[in-house]
Input
Amino acid sequence: MSRVAVLKGGRSLERQVSLASGARVEDALERLGHEVVGIDVGGDLFTALHDCAPDVAFIAMHGPGGEDGTVQELLEVLGIPYTGSGVSASARCADKVLAKHALRDAGLPTPDWVAFTDTAFRDLGAGQALDAIEQRLDFPLVVKPVGQGSAIGIKFARSAQEVPAAILAAFSYDPKVMIERFVAGRELAAGVLSGRAGGAQALPIVEAIARDRDFYDFTARYDIGRTRFACPADLDAALAARVQEVALAAYELLGCYGFARVDMILAADGPQILELNTIPGLTGTSTLPQAADAAGIDFDELVGRTVELALTRARSTV
Ligand SMILES: Nc1ncnc2c1ncn2[C@@H]1O[C@H](COP(=O)(O)OP(=O)(O)O)[C@@H](O)[C@H]1O
Ligand SMILES: [Mg+2]
Output
């Protein structure tokens, strides 16, 4: 058995979800017989890790700081094995635009988009290109901060008048903003797990179904009771296999490890990848644990296997 530091909380806007994920992971690790040290991540992380000298760190953090390679890099410096994707995959997936470039270059489906930084907008007059951008992508458009999660800062623009305010709102979360083509369709999440013997497996697909069917009010998904999840999603076998194939290809392309959740919209012509979450929610209502469960992997096994994979990677890179 190992001494496992569970890193949770942190300063991102997804702090509360992370605390819930972390608490649930701690319970599972205790049931598995590990010695568990919970760390609410803050300015004293280095000291806390040094004092507890864990065999492995379970990173149960979401959003900037925890999911984007920052904490991963610190753990590398300290020589502490950690769960989930490495620094490079974490950084690339946390930046939705870098991930989308990689997907598009590899021929994997992702909605067309344009991205720019606040510097381009303020100092280089990128605002004047808005007309051209709007024409290329067509309405409705989705405006998002590049590095956030949990739908934070995302706005839909139905017309040109709504774009500037949506962009300004997104800039308040991130110096990089993207404008993406809106894709109508069913909302799917595909979990992927690395295998103990190498290779990765796509889990059964989960569909998020909003109770009131307002396309634009996607925040419904995050209000308890306004969304229900179908797991496995009601898809015919060939389509489900195609969605899993796309998710697995994206996971491998970006070099993810341990686990990840690929968010997609199922459009009329097939799945379109929105993003990859390298540390998906692990709370009682999160979709990755539900999907693992549907594949016969209960939460304790999911957590145990994720820790084992972290130790395996550390051994193979020594
Ligand atoms: N291009 C798009 N077309 C339609 N809906 C979108 C699009 N982009 C985002 N959404 C909606 O917003 C939600 C969050 O977007 P996503 O890119 O997954 O960012 P995050 O989950 O990191 O906030 C999606 O699950 C979907 O409901
Ligand atoms: Mg998402």
About this structure: The radius of gyration is 19 Å. The chain has three domains: 3-83, 92-109+184-317, 113-181.
